[in-house]
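Run log // design_07
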């Protein structure tokens, strides 16, 4: 079955850290560029970070640059998002994405002030 399964979300205080994981199955993971998106309540889904198929070509949104790190382990078919110095405005559901149409179920990140 072709799917993405995220984990690692939770409740954290301002300034804290979380690491999200996304395990892929049913397709050749290292053939694809992968991304993390997020969607806050009442807002559109936005791109957070992308990574090339072998870990190069990394890009971040301006809102997370310098605080978040995207990475992948192709041997473990897993995508990661290390989130440091979290802010209340980072509160959202975070989604793993394989372009263009494969999405995970999402994992909730809540940052308390």
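design_07 sequence
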């Amino acid at each position: 079955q072709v799917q993405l399964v995220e984990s690692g979300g939770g409740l954290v205080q301002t300034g804290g850290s979380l690491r999200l994981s996304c395990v892929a199955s049913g397709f050749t993971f290292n053939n694809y560029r992968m991304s993390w998106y997020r969607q806050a309540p009442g807002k559109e889904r936005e791109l957070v970070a992308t990574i090339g198929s072998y870990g190069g070509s990394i890009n971040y949104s301006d809102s997370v640059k310098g605080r978040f790190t995207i990475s992948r382990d192709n041997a473990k078919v897993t995508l990661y998002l290390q989130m440091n110095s979290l802010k209340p405005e980072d509160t959202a559901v975070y989604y793993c994405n394989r372009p263009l149409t494969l999405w995970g179920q999402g994992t909730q990140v809540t940052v308390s002030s």
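The chain has a mean pLDDT of 97.
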